[in-house]
Amino acid sequence: MNDDMILTVKDLHKTFRLQDGRTLSVLNGISTGIHKGEKIAVIGPSGSGKSTFLRCLNRMEEPTSGVITFKGEDITSPKCDINLVRRKMGMVFQHFYLFPHLTVRKNLTLAPVDQKIMTQDEADAKAKELLARVGLADKIDEWPDRLSGGQKQRVAIARAMAMSPDVLLFDEPTSALDPEMIGEVLDVMKELADDGMTMYLVTHEMGFAHKIADRVLFIDKGVISEEGTPEEVFDHPQQPRTIEFLSKVLRR
User: Which residues contact 60 (CB under 8 A, 6 or more apart)?
Assistant: First the structure.
């Protein structure tokens, strides 16, 4: 493993068993990795396995087979304490998943205090710092249902950062937002990228992916069918399926 390789994936498969007894293969042998500070955009059609791939990285979905290594540790091993690993793998979801019965402050401080990583005072200070960073310092004692969609997602990003993760996983973080709110979330994500955060980003925001990604993975039918720099994948795609996909999404 290279010294700066944070996460590697080797021959990842994921199969779901359906209610009628049949099986559905969603991931069919993905191998890849991410270096410290690298930003990887994952694109592809709906149903191609992008989100499943992302959720397998921190074992929110259990891989059927394959090996995932995080900072030198095989996290697919039965001996791995995945809860310890997840402290360093922040995740931002499509639908925010803020706790509605907790204030913004408590949403950010619950995990680090509950897991005894910080005292309440330390977590409060961290929360204030992170909310200022995402432009929501004045919302620290607000309730989630009083926030706009864009504000909720920025709080969710701050919450993911509260544990000082080594990598952030973004699962289509703007797809549930009204168009006018997308920009405020993308601005926060760009700032994180500019600051050197290691990021996996599943997204339909092709312009944003082109701008911030170091590498682009095009996933189709559960495999990486094309991979390269944004210029290579977006401007000079080689595979017919990539060309077909981009011709549809880029002309909208």
Answer: 91
Does this model's pTM top 0.85? My answer is yes
Alpha-carbon gap, residue 155 to 19, rounded angstroms: 37
Q: What stretch of H or E contains 150?
A: helix 149-161
Q: Report pLDDT for 138.
A: 96
227 three-class SS: strand
- Give mean pLDDT in consecutive 10-residue pieces for the chain, a chain of 252 residues: 82 94 95 96 95 96 97 95 93 92 97 93 96 96 96 96 95 90 93 95 94 97 97 96 93 60
How far apart, in whole angstroms, are the C-alpha atoms of residue 80 and residue 4? Answer: 21
- Residue 1 is predicted with a pLDDT of 40
Number of helical H runs and strand E runs in the chain: 9, 10
Q: How many CA atoms lie within 13 A of 220 on its CB side?
A: 14
**Residue 64 phi, psi (nearest 5):** -75, -40
Closest CA to 218 of 17, 26, 43: 43
- Looking at 5-148, list the stretches that DSSP marks H as alpha helix, in order from N- to C-terminal side: 50-57, 82-86, 104-114, 120-133
Burial class, 79, CB count within 10 angstroms (exposed 0-12 / middle 13-18 / buried 19+): exposed
Q: Residue 160: enclosing H or E segment and its boundaries?
A: helix 149-161
- Alpha-helical runs (H) found in 2-135: 50-57, 82-86, 104-114, 120-133
- Cα 27 from Cα 221, distance rounded (Å): 7
